[in-house]
Amino acid sequence: MTDNSKTSLDIVIENLISIHPLLAKNITRAIRTKTHHTPGELFVLGTLNHHGKLSMTEIGNHLSLPKPHVTSLVEKLICEELVERFHDTNDRRIIYIQITEKGIKEFREIKNEIGQDLRQKLQILDAEELKDLSQASQYLKDILIKILQQSLNSNNTNI
Amino acid sequence: MTDNSKTSLDIVIENLISIHPLLAKNITRAIRTKTHHTPGELFVLGTLNHHGKLSMTEIGNHLSLPKPHVTSLVEKLICEELVERFHDTNDRRIIYIQITEKGIKEFREIKNEIGQDLRQKLQILDAEELKDLSQASQYLKDILIKILQQSLNSNNTNI
DNA sequence: GTTAATAGTTATAATTTTGTAACCATTATT
DNA sequence: AATAATGGTTACAAAATTATAACTATTAAC
Fold first, then answer.
1. CA B138, CA A139: separation in Å to the nearest integer?
2. Which one of A59, A76, A115, B105 has the lowest number of neighbouring Cβ atoms within 10 Å?
3. Fold category of A3-124 in CATH
4. What is the pLDDT of residue B87?
5. How far apart are CA B20 and CA A73, in angstroms?
């Protein structure tokens, strides 16, 4: 066995592949049961909550969603006035989607709702563990965002 | 603003909610393009790779999949001889699913395939960052598994 | 000015996931 | 022995995601 020759990189990849379904279990399920939004809708709202404003194409790239899907998801969010759309003044082809005040408020509330179960489950951890976990998750998040940006600049082959 | 009063717990939850779609982008998409398995199939295989052997119900609980879905996913995996099924000798209602040698090998290969893109993207990190990341991801994974077990023992209301 | 490329939409189909209800076999309860 | 509960399957429907192709509007390239 060459198991002890595993690189940090191997470990990271294995862990990410394990973490994904665990998060899916806890988060996607909470979205389904606790909100009237689909996971896709909420991920778009979350991305806009983070970035403020993005073009349709950028949204698709960030979340790896096919363009037509982005169109329909954004449409639903617009109907609820959680986001709004406006044209780029320089290039009228580009449509920017921006989160509204209502959208920000809604996302915050939903985040709270969704967090409830996790919150409860995380209570078995003591303060120290929780602090470690917040740092670990922060680090992972930052790296993933960094990687994502990277891939947006290089690999811009259309979805 | 009471923003600076955010607890570690709040931060963890926000981060997890952000991390999920980022992983979904990188992993689910890779599964779709690089393998002939569906994400669901692969998550079942991955869980069995981790646990070795689980009952149908346990698989569903681990991944939050409805029972009928588990049945169909396992069936496909059995067709490819990646897992096999056998009855519990004490309680003949229970059917255990166990990963085969072929399944272990297949999962290892797929993990490699899927990791390729991530691997490439992670190369912008230096050795130190990579080590930190491997620790952070390991910590997060362990905690999530711990939380998951917890929820399996208490909340055993059927999916 | 014509052609090519880009941003986004519309329409439509296929796949995957989720949700329900009815059902069989087996075990537990009384 | 009769009844209830559990583990799993079958059958089916609904929702969500993914994938394509054709299309409009606008900008870029020649």
1. 12
2. B105
3. Arc Repressor Mutant, subunit A (1.10.10)
4. 94
5. 18
